[in-house]
Amino acid sequence: MLTAALIIALVIALAALGVSLAYALGTAAVVAFVVTDSLPFLAAAPQRIFSQLDVFAIMAMPLFILAGELMNRAGITRALIDVAMLMLARLPGGLGHVNIMTSVFFAGISGSATADIAAMSNTFVPQMEKRGYDRQYAGAVTAASSVIGPIIPPSIVLILYGAIMSTDVAALFAAGVVPGLLLAAALFATNAWYARREGHPGGAGEERPPLGPTLKKGAPALLLPVIILGGIVFGIVTPIEAGALACLAAVVIGFAGNGLTWASITQALRRTATLTGSIFMIIAAASLLSYLIVLHQVPDDLATLVANIHVDGIWFVLVIMLTFLLLGMGFDFMLGLTVVAPLLVPIAVMQGADPVAMGLLICLNLSIGLITPPLGGAIMMVATITGDGYWGLCRRVLPFVLAELAVLLLIAVFPEIALALPRALGLL
């Protein structure tokens, strides 16, 4: 346990100094090897790193990142917004509902909270402010709804979890559908409460886009998530082939609608390479940490500790949820995904927890961490893009955080909510 404490202390210290997560993890790992007299084992580091990255399922991640980048540049996001406006604009707090629904649509394409925020912040925040909404509230809704992105498939986070924990990605995708829709329902309810409390605009007189042109333009984008998810869960395509299909569809739709150019494709490729490289560096650094932790039998020590305090079953799952909630308040999600999950999840599975349910719960928990102060990554992105104050956004987003935590607790106590669909599809 001393090794784990040393690693965590080093990472915290380096992060506090402003060192990026990949370098903080890598430095902490090398120093920990030296301090714990494990330096000879460091010779195996290259093999360890490449074995962690040489996972077939990870190949799907850059493809879905690229698909999201292409669709954002092709104007598909605008088409999805118009469809959501057609459905929800005339409800009280209509634009807030539209913001959330667009995130549901976009989640079925990009699988990324970052892509959601990049697409929505510049579009929704000015429009909501123009229609009479508080600007910080508009930013808070945008940040909160971005959490749906990593849960509704295809999901980059679920792909990474499946690769790291050797869990079936198709089953994880199917398990994410109902929780993702429950998240949306919780956000709708919270937005409706805000609308009544603060008198947000919306109602029968709200302007809506024309029915025919909107559906015609939005139909290809709406069909794409169905094709991707259906292809994966029914075994027609692998997640990697689905990612390639999404990229091809984005290019075809983009050129057909005159929204995509070769220059924008080049920009999307560059952005995808940057994001993928950053994620791979974090995975490589974290693999060294997990290697050292295994060498010093930290999982065995942790299992002994849990046995001694007699925490098991649903209570141990709730302890894991609290652990990841605290991690989400101060760290990037990759730390929990690549270092902490491999320690705790096998213990929960040995106690009878379903590995797919645990994967969904952890990814949902880490995603909620994106909007949890003091270091909510999604709030920071919205604040940077819109120029709004970070702490003001934190205050406005707290009711949405509570709503999403209620969904997390519901699924933790009743995991069959997430597992019913994969069971029905024969994936479990």
From TrEMBL:
It is found in: Cell inner membrane. GO terms for molecular function: transmembrane transporter activity. It is a multi-pass membrane protein. One of its GO terms (cellular component) is plasma membrane. Its main location: membrane. Keywords: Cell inner membrane, Cell membrane, Membrane, Transmembrane, Transmembrane helix, Transport. The chain crosses the membrane at residues 48-67, 104-125, 137-164, 170-189, 218-237, 243-263, 275-294, 314-345, 357-385, 397-421. Belongs to the TRAP transporter large permease family. Part of the tripartite ATP-independent periplasmic (TRAP) transport system. PANTHER family: SIALIC ACID TRAP TRANSPORTER PERMEASE PROTEIN SIAT-RELATED, TRAP TRANSPORTER LARGE PERMEASE PROTEIN. This is TRAP transporter large permease protein. It comes from Marinihelvus fidelis.
